[in-house]
From TrEMBL, chain A:
Residues 10-76, 78-144 form the HMA domain. GO terms for molecular function: ATP binding; ATP hydrolysis activity; copper ion binding; P-type divalent copper transporter activity; P-type monovalent copper transporter activity. It is found in: Cell membrane. One of its GO terms (cellular component) is plasma membrane. Belongs to the cation transport ATPase (P-type) (TC 3.A.3) family. Type IB subfamily. It comes from the Bacteria. One of its GO terms (biological process) is copper ion homeostasis. The chain crosses the membrane at residues 170-192, 204-226, 238-257, 269-286, 419-442, 462-486, 783-802, 814-836. This is Copper-exporting P-type ATPase. CDD domains: HMA, P-type_ATPase_Cu-like. PANTHER family: ATP7, ISOFORM B, P-TYPE CU(+) TRANSPORTER. It is an enzyme of class 7 (translocase).
From TrEMBL, chain B:
It comes from the Bacteria. Keywords: Membrane, Transmembrane, Transmembrane helix. The chain crosses the membrane at residues 9-30, 36-59. This is Uncharacterized protein. It comes from Desulfofundulus australicus DSM 11792. The keyword Membrane applies.
Length: 860, 67
């Protein structure tokens, strides 16, 4: 029937890149029309869009996109970042993900519960951001485009305050009234009759107290669960609503119609309904308080952004908003001020505290030509710099984005928890039904005893009938089974872990990166630029008899003063560092492939290799043993001759970075296999490895073969990290289980590598592994606790202990356990804030606080 | 039936009513003499839980079939 066919047809308009002519148009149209399920297609070359009418039951958007891509054209994807408020558990996360991923054209959805954040990747034209927002809002959650920078900080603070305020108000209603209800319920017990007036035990009075607790403080659960049910979704609120509602209705019936058979006046569980609400509200309140703290790392980073900048425009200095600085502006920074944006120093000298970005506690000297990072603090001098990166492009903005993105990803370990939690709500209701049926048809008749009591309560259940008893156990099972802790266990620890990494200048690109880093068994280091400085330095000055070291260095430096050769520059730098005054030679001649010839203070100086000495007829026999020994250490030795006489040997080499041996030793102590990989010759490589303390060396490996070496190690069953500079080592970084890209402050936007070390300090490799291990330890502890809680709590709540003890868990005790389980998971996660990586202990912490030395492993 | 919402309501309410009825019949079939309130209260509770269990499953399945 054509009418029906039209109804199920959908139309989308997908942008396509790469179409250049009418032939492209025809190609795309033909390919799409030949796809089963496509009714019509029209390509607009000018707008670069393809309009497709298709049957969603026969073909999906993904298949249509694949068809276009197979023709060699690109279909761009869009991404939106949303703040989603009101999610309380993993089931909520699953609901949001299901609703959004069900929209046609949505490629990927990542929702973070603790960050209240959703990132959606989609094909523009197939679905709009508004439709995505509507889909989430339709589930009953508050959704807004995620703000950035200060705006986000303000909004987040405001929302957090509102939630804390709302739950505090609910607490003020719930707790005083619930305590009065409890007093009233137990007024006949112990010494209470002496103090509690009789009217407080009146069921009508108790009903009057309980009603506002249920309908004011507990109203949120009914509203949320109803909104969810309308959309066919269930979450924790439904558990609360069913539990509170059932307890309240039974108590009300027993109050007004005691003969109805629900246990009569003796079974008015007002304290259950009231305390159940009070404990759940307490849980929500504590969660609102603590959840904000877990995401403190992002807040700290956002707080670093300076609000104003002093720039020179039209020849005068003026103060403007930091956001208004444009690339090319000359910015003036005085001592004690924050640097507003990224840039390059053009005038002046200073020391800059970069600890907030790089984790490096010692201020870094800045001179003209050096890069400065926005949000770092100028310590000593005034300087001017030219703004190079502003707004969303600054290092800080990119760090914040990376951390936020990482916090929204999901670790493999979380998948099982999510799967369980996502199906838990329905499962719990099935369980509640089974429990009810069991106790109604069998359990009550087989096991009921008149001395029945609630655990930790003198309340007698003697008068409770079969229905009241079965219902009570069914409700308690509902309440205790809440998977809050399970849902929070992994993401809260991951947020804290990635935040801790950012604090220390280590950026994990996702939760999977944290998990993979924690499981590492081998670390492969690139040599040049990673273990070594990547530029030659002067290492040895060996004078021949009759010459002093200083004289030799002075002559060599003078001869090389005008040289642009890296070896010559290394000699000049070395001489300056040694305090030798470097003068200029009168004449200078570079002899390609040999060295240099210069004239200085009337003397002819030759500096170069053996061939140069042979060519000029200089005898170097006496120097050869020294040269051989230096070359064995992987150094480049150069002969120096003055007026045709051998004067000595000068050696330069790429030297290892500071702290490398310390980092390598620690890695070995942690049980890691440490390997160095380089394209250099074996002799040089082994010399460097010896200095670094590395026994395993893979030398003479071409850059393209480094990835193959990584795979070879993986084939031996090792989980391998590759540490490199992120550009030359990209294939190896990508092939490794964890690619660690070493950055240099501002250069953090590297695409390759799961972990980015902002500063080029190998001790951060150790810190990254330690932070990842500490995070995974927290994840395991949290998951274990959540699983133990649920697997112990549910059978007990279902009445497992009852036949032998006559005791059952009251709904309010179940609510207390449930609230405590999620609060304890969050508190356990917060302990991660105290974690200090071993290599940072003893150093001063960022922002000038003294680090607390912690004994042994800093965190259990 | 072209309205997925109405289809869903009919299906999950039907299933839940059937479950409640089955429960009611079971209270007679066991031979135990249950008070009327227990029978009716139990049937209501079974109906509520069945609704909660079946609603999301039915709604998402019916929606899937209609998109």
């Amino acid at each position: 029937m054509p009418v029906k066919e039209e109804k199920i047809m959908k139309q989308i308009s997908i942008p396509v890149e790469g179409m250049t002519c009418a032939a492209c148009v025809a190609r795309v149209e033909r390919a799409l029309k030949n796809t089963p399920g496509v009714a019509d297609t029209a390509v607009n070359l000018v707008t670069g869009k393809v309009s497709i009418t298709y049957d969603p039951q026969k073909v999906s958007v993904e298949q249509l996109v694949k068809t276009i891509r197979e023709l060699g054209y690109q279909v761009p994807t869009g991404e939106i970042h949303l703040t989603v408020r009101g999610m309380s558990c993993a089931a909520c996360v699953a609901r949001v993900e299901r609703a959004v991923s069900g929209l046609p054209g949505v490629l990927n959805v990542a929702v973070s519960l603790p960050a209240e954040y959703a990132r959606v990747t989609f094909y523009p034209g197939t679905v709009t951001p508004a439709q995505i927002r509507e889909a989430i809002a339709g589930l009953g959650y508050e959704v807004a485009e995620k703000a950035t920078g200060q705006e986000a900080l303000d909004r987040e603070r405001q929302a957090r305050r509102q939630e804390i305020h709302r739950q505090a108000r609910n607490m003020w209603v719930a707790w005083p009234l619930s305590l009065l209800v409890m007093l009233g319920m137990f007024r006949d017990v112990w010494i209470l009759p002496r103090f509690v007036p009789e009217f407080m035990g009146n069921t009508l009075f108790l009903w009057a107290l309980t009603t506002p607790v249920v309908f004011i403080a507990g109203w949120q659960f009914f509203v949320h669960s109803f909104n969810g049910l309308k959309k066919g979704a269930t979450d924790m609120n439904l558990l609360y609503a069913t539990g509170i509602g059932a307890a309240y209705i039974i108590a009300t019936i027993n109050t007004f119609w005691p003969g109805a058979g629900f246990g009569g006046k003796g079974a008015t569980f007002f304290e259950s309904a009231a305390l159940l609400t009070a404990f759940i509200v307490l849980g929500r309140y504590l969660e609102a308080l603590t959840r904000g703290r877990v995401s403190e790392a992002i807040r700290k980073l956002l707080n670093l952004q300076p609000k104003t900048a002093r720039v020179i425009r039209e020849g005068r200095e003026m103060e403007i908003a930091a956001l208004d600085v444009v690339p090319g502006d000359v910015v003036v920074v005085r001592p004690g001020e924050s640097i507003p944006v990224d840039g390059r120093v053009i005038e002046g000298h200073s020391a800059v505290d970069e600890s907030m970005i790089t984790g490096e506690s010692i201020p870094v000297e800045k001179k003209p030509g050096d890069e400065v990072i926005g949000a770092t603090i100028n310590k000593t001098g005034t300087f001017k710099f030219e703004a190079t990166r502003v707004g969303r492009d600054t290092a800080l903005a990119r760090i914040i984005r990376l951390v936020e993105d990482a916090q929204a990803t999901r670790a493999p370990v979380q998948r099982l928890a999510d799967l369980v939690a996502g199906h838990f709500i329905a499962g719990v209701h099935v369980l509640a039904l089974v429990v009810f049926l069991f106790w109604f048809f069998y359990g009550y008749h087989a096991f009921f005893r008149p001395d029945s009591h609630f655990i930790l309560s003198p309340y007698s259940l003697a008068q409770v009938g079969v229905f009241g008893f079965a219902l009570l156990l069914s409700v308690t099972t509902l309440v205790i089974s809440c998977p809050c802790a399970l849902g929070l266990a992994t993401p809260s620890a991951m947020m804290a872990g990635t935040g801790k990494g950012a604090e220390n200048g280590i950026l994990f690109k996702g939760a999977d990166a944290v998990e993979a880093t924690a499981a590492l068994q081998a670390v492969l280091f690139d040599k040049t630029g990673t273990i070594t400085r990547g530029e030659p330095s002067l290492t040895n000055v060996v004078p021949a008899p009759g010459f002093s070291q200083e004289e030799l260095l002075r002559l060599a430096a003078a001869a090389e003063k005008n040289s642009e050769h890296p070896l010559g520059e290394a000699i000049v730098r070395g001489a300056e560092k040694a305090g030798v005054a470097v003068e200029e030679a009168e004449e200078f001649e570079a002899i390609p492939g040999h060295g240099i010839k210069a004239r200085y203070q009337g003397r002819t100086i030759l500096l170069g290799n053996r061939r140069l000495m042979e060519r000029e007829g200089v005898s170097i026999e006496t120097l050869l043993p020294s040269v051989k020994s230096l070359e064995q250490d992987g150094k480049t030795a150069m002969f120096l001759a003055v007026d045709g006489q051998a004067a000595g040997v000068i050696a330069v080499a790429d030297t290892i970075k500071e702290h490398v041996p310390q980092a390598i030793a620690r890695l070995k102590k942690m049980g890691m296999q440490v390997i160095m990989i380089t394209g250099d010759n074996r002799r040089t490589a082994e010399a460097i490895a010896r200095q670094a303390g590395i026994e395993s060396v893979l030398a003479e490996v071409l850059p393209q073969d480094k990835a193959e070496e990584v795979r070879r190690l993986q084939a031996r069953g090792l989980r391998v990290a590759m540490v490199g500079d992120g550009i030359n080592d990209a294939p190896a970084l990508a092939a490794a289980d964890v690619g660690m890209a070493i950055g240099t402050g501002t250069d953090i936007a590297k695409e390759t590598g799961e972990v980015i070390l902002i500063k080029a300090d190998l001790r951060d490799v150790v810190s990254a592994i330690e932070i990842a291990r500490a995070t995974m330890r927290k994840v395991r502890q949290n998951l274990a606790w959540a699983f133990v809680y649920n697997s112990l709590g549910i059978p007990i709540a279902a009445g497992l202990l009852y036949p032998s003890t006559g005791l059952i868990v009251s709904p309010e005790l179940a609510a207390f356990f449930m609230a405590m389980s999620s609060v304890s998971v969050t508190l356990n996660t917060l302990l991660l804030k105290r974690f200090v990586p071993s290599m940072k202990r003893g150093q001063r912490k960022t922002r000038g606080e003294a680090a607390q030395p912690l004994p042994g492993p800093a965190l259990r | 039936m072209n309205n997925p919402a109405r289809t869903s309501v009919l299906i999950y309410t039907g299933i839940s009513l059937a479950a409640a009825l089955l429960f009611l019949l079971a209270t007679y079939a066991t031979g135990i003499s249950y008070p009327a309130v227990a029978r009716i209260g139990g049937a209501v509770w079974v109906f509520i839980l069945s609704m909660i269990i079946t609603m999301p499953v039915v709604i998402s399945n019916v929606n899937k079939r209609h998109t």
